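Why does residue order matter? Because the sequence determines the fold. Keep that principle in mind as you read this record.
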Amino acid sequence: MRPLTEEETKTMFEKLSKYIGENIKLLVDRPDGTYCFRLHQDRVYYMSEKILKLATNFSRDKLISAGTCFGKFTKTKKFRLHVTALDFLAPYAKFKVWVKPGAEQTFLYGNHVLKSGLGRITENTNQYQGVVVYSMADVPLGFGVAAKSTQECRRVDPMSIVVFHQADVGEFIRNEDALT
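Structure:
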């Protein structure tokens, strides 16, 4: 487990800022202690410094994970967020989308959100902006990228895609054997 390099930190924070903006500071400087990001086998983990000190007791080859996996770096050094980061992204999300109860299941199966399934959307959401997808009962379901801006969503036909799917809580069941 090692700290992220300057380039890795920049890449990861750029991806996180698409979803939570300048609230990234709130992830690191929390009132319940200091938290940090660490890299282990191309995966980025978010943990308290107390857990980090405990994790140093194990050798790198014996340690599977410590903390919460936020995502991983691909072979081309791009950062891909995992659904396990949803619990930390949802409270700080700048742009949100609520889906109707009938569209929840299709989103949880890995499909995009259509205009017919859109319940509400945050005002002033730009096209290709990172959004957190909620049920109408304010339960975070996953996250994605807005395919259309808020104004375009109002006048688009019902079968148009308004949110591109990126990750959802249904991945725990669909990819049970691949998640670590």
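The mean pLDDT is 89.
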